[in-house]
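User: Is it possible to get a 3D structure for a protein together with its bound compound? The compound here is adenosine-5'-triphosphate. I've pasted both below.
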Amino acid sequence: MKEWNDHFFDFLVSHAKVYGFIFPSSEIYGGLNAVYDYGPYGIELKNNIKEFWWKTMTILHENIVGIDSSILMRNDIWNASGHVNEFNELLIDNKDSKKRYRPDLLIKEHVEKKFSNHPKKKEDILFRLSQSLKKKDLLDLKILFDELNIFDSISKTKNWTEIRHFNMMFKIKNENKKDLYLRPETAQGIFCNFHNVKKSTRMKIPFGIAQIGKSFRNEIFARKFLFRMREFEQMEMQFFILPEEEKRWYEYWKNVRLKWHLILGDKKNYKLRNHDHLAHYASLGADIEYHFPFGFQEIEGIHSRRDFDLKKHEFFSKKKLRVFESKKNYIPYVIETSLGLDRLFLAIFSSSLKKEELVENRTIRIVLKLPSYLSPVKGAILPLVGKDGLPEIAKKIFDEFKMNHKLIYDQKESIGKLYRRQDAIGTPLCFTVDYKTIETDTVTMRCRDSMKQKRIHIKNISRIIENETGLEKILKKLSDFI
Ligand code: ATP
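Assistant: Yes, that's possible. Here is the predicted structure of the complex:
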């Protein structure tokens, strides 16, 4: 157990690969840094998470509708939104190791290590850092960096370049060799469709637009598996409101989003943290942080973007993006909730992966205790043995219910091993066809979490799966506080 705890993250990455959840991208050519592929069970789990979020947004909130805007958009959008000039990270290179770093992160790490017993000194340096960042004073930042005598951990030298800005948007070329950007957030597709959506749905303020889609960021410090990738998916919702109701809706969305996460996991794993550094578009901001295996980190951001985006797009596109409602002519404010799908996947996967010692037969089992409504496979239909007509009965049951639920039929190993395999991919229920089935039309139902078994009639299988794994129950629970 100690080894499991000490190396949990390595076990998790390995389990995700071996059991078909996550594969490294381009693996047969040596992999591509910070890019991952979802395997057969990974995509089922990811789709279920998406469905949960999508239904929460677009069914439980009657005033939220969805869109799916394109990844490629005109460069004018990124100029107007400020991303071309402002969507930057800081960068420093070590000339000997040729490695790139974020100087602000190197300073923070250095201070944590070096001054852990000198809280006052630590606080002073971090304050200086935050002032330089706020003023975007790269010279002052470099002076601080040099004063701290920071060495590169690889080359062990202090042979650093100057600090500079690095734009995180990926550029590609179109057929005329003109630059285009891959979107770094899905939100701009929502703002640019604000009027199309409003007109076509006849929505009135307040209302929201939700979207799930890929975003791309050329992260300098991409690492920690799915946590920081260069290609990832976001689930974003922009909620358009009356300007004077900014505070009220900001508090509402912080509260509702936190409660949504708490339905998924243990309260002690979540924290709400107000931002000290706001993104260039935001006036209020908070993060919901999750306790990942490497510490508390952001999983979702809630911001007030005020009228920043619509105003900019109105100015640059020269198209009216204001509303005339309740005898007022105004640009609505926007509260945004922005959740990383892959980060949420990692959070759910890591909190579900357990190693259990089974005292009765002195073995261990690895079990993925996913919330059953998110499990990639809801039920496994397994013949006790691969003969005497049992596989045929099991196959018939599988065919009868496979249209209603994501099921698996398997007869490749002994029943004990089949159960372990279903535990490892998080299947909540197994139904075993045995000799008694032939006479009584009953099967043994085995539950993943308790490992308890009981006999049930074949005709009840579908209803039990729906009861135990359906999303509806959870959505009803959520609707109480929305
Ligand atoms: P961070 O500070 O961790 O870089 P951020 O504040 O830049 O994140 P936002 O711009 O607020 O992130 O994006 C909203 C959400 O998108 C984040 O809360 C996160 O869940 C997800 N996200 C952002 N960048 C990445 C990434 N590189 N890989 C995976 N998910 C990401």
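The mean pLDDT is 95. The first strand starts at residue 22 and ends at 24.
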